[in-house]
Design a protein that fits this description.
Layout (H helix, E strand, L loop, with lengths): L1 E6 L4 H11 L6 E7 L5 H8 L4 E3 L6 H14 L4 E4 L8 H6 L4 E5 L14 H9 L4 E8 L9 E8 L6 H24 L3 E4 L2 E4 L9
Helix pairs in contact: 1-6, 5-6
Pathway: Purine metabolism; IMP biosynthesis via de novo pathway; N(2)-formyl-N(1)-(5-phospho-D-ribosyl)glycinamide from N(1)-(5-phospho-D-ribosyl)glycinamide (10-formyl THF route): step 1/1
Protein name: Phosphoribosylglycinamide formyltransferase
GO cellular component, one term: cytoplasm
Length: 210
């Protein structure tokens, strides 16, 4: 699987994905890192590994923005995308071109605390304000709306009585770092099947008899 990473910040999820590739837990080749802004940590992580990078800022003309992304992906022959802390909405033409090949990680148990404007600290503050006892992380396939694509994997995280948004974020992020590479490995191994808007995880293929 030729994997493109999209990121908007420090890139800790991108780093976890790259570490999983290095460790042999994810059969993928990282071929591109796309960011919407220069000078971020995710770009530095990619450049340190000699992964091609491109900074593509969203354009007022949505069709030109979509085409710029598609051109960058085509140049590196990417066939899957991981949204590793990418805060911009993926244009519809990119979603359509990579249907069921784009994965995103979100710091809550979707559909709770998802949608436009729900990201980062806002999610964890919302969980605490609502008095939730449990939150977690979700990896899902991307469709043409915010955080509504079919869920691939989820894992719960207990909310402690003395949690702050920062302490809760730290524990949820640790789950994201484990869950995201697992979901990408399922994609790389051809084990994700979408049926009626839901993801079915297929069993691993058996080795052929010699």
């Amino acid at each position: 699987m030729r994997l493109a990473l999209f990121a908007s910040g420090g890139g800790s999820n991108a780093g976890a994905i790259l570490d999983a590739i290095d460790a042999g837990r994810l059969r993928a080749e990282p071929v591109l890192l796309v960011s919407d802004r220069p000078g971020i940590g995710a770009l530095a992580r990619a450049e340190a590994r000699d992964i091609p990078t491109e900074v593509i800022a969203p354009l007022s003309d949505a069709s030109r923005f979509a085409q710029a992304l598609l051109n960058a992906l085509a140049r590196q022959e990417a066939d899957a995308i991981a949204l590793a802390g990418y805060l911009k909405k993926i244009p519809d033409p990119v979603v359509w071109a990579f249907r069921d090949r784009i994965l995103n990680v979100h710091p809550s148990l979707l559909p709770a605390f998802g949608g436009a404007g729900w990201y980062g600290k806002r999610v964890h503050q919302g969980v605490l304000d609502a008095g939730c006892r449990v939150t977690g992380a979700t990896v899902h396939l991307v469709d043409d709306e915010y955080d509504t694509g079919p869920i691939v994997l989820q894992e719960a995280v207990r909310v402690e009585p003395d949690d702050t948004p920062e302490t809760l974020a730290t524990r949820v992020l640790a789950v994201e770092h484990r869950l995201f590479p697992q979901a990408l490995a399922l994609l790389a191994d051809g084990r994700l099947q979408v049926e009626a808007g839901r993801v079915r995880i297929l069993p691993p293929s058996r080795p052929s008899a010699s």
